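help with these tokens:
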Amino acid sequence: MIEQKQILRKGTQREYFLDWIKVSVVLLLVPYHTAVSFSHIGHAYIYIEPKIDSWFYILMSDFLNLWFMRILFFISGISVYLGLRKRTPKEFIVERFKRLILPIIFLVLTIGPLSGYVLATTRYGFTGSFFAFYPQFFLKLHQYLFWAQLWYCGYLFVFSLIGLPLCVFLKERIGIVEKINGFLAKKYNILLPGVVIVIFEMSLRPFFPGYQSLIGDWANEAVYVSLFIFGYIMGQSKDIFHVMARHSKLYGTIGAISSLVYLYVKRFCSFIPEGYGKEVLVAMLWGIAAYALILFILGFAKTHFYKNSPLLAYLSNSSFALYVFHYAIITFINFFLLKSNMNHYLVWGLTTISTYLVFTLLFECVLKRSSFFCYICSIRK
């Protein structure tokens, strides 16, 4: 981001590897959301029938879904630490509202109903005009995932509010944070927070499989807020990131093996009967894979993507706008291409490339030239 300000280390040096991770995750949202039309892992999308059990779409959807939003919540915790260093709690809340809630309001009133209309006509048999559909969108917000991809902003705003007292408490007692980070930086202690993630996954995921409506989404909320707090604490110690970099191969190996087992058990394993036992196993594998991959990506990026560049500056400036608009662009392109007889891989490729091209034109010709969109999408002129 998804949030535009660049991450700073204590002092003046920017941690560019965190910016590279953020813009990379936003860029991956395009192939990810395109693949969902074929893998069917979400419900608020237009689908091709029948579902295609292809390893390609599984990697583009299920594998990315393992970790990429989770790592954003971790990095967002670091952003909160940096934000509170230069803002009072009141100023921080106002800033959060402007950056996170105003874009949601804009999307729900404009882009959301447009995407919902396409979904209604293709999956729910609606035959009226967009203007006839518009009030229905607000009567069935849950069905059309009213805030669409901006659910992340809503969750982050809530976490920022409920976590603010803890963050202020730790800010005023830096010794506690230093002791925690000193402990985590020893040997393999940094793996211990992953136990918390695994416990939440195993105990909650079978009962709350995940729908980003905030209310009742207990498994996601427990995992996301934990990673948010971990980011707030660990982001205050550069030694933690050195540990991640030093052992990144180990974390990558754990993440790769557990991810492959997770995908196999979830998608293809037939000898384990469906039921609570399998759901707990899948949840456990998800927790292990997600945390290990987060550590690996942070460590790998710390080692290899630590420099600034004009490309990073451009992507950082445009990434939140891409986050806001990409889903609607994908929906409309898919709406037309899925009607063709083209090979589904070709449809995926054309939709993905076309989305990037259409957004770039939109950004260059409209968004960055409009004071309104610059404000909503945090674009620097």
Remarks:
- Residues 16-376 form one domain.
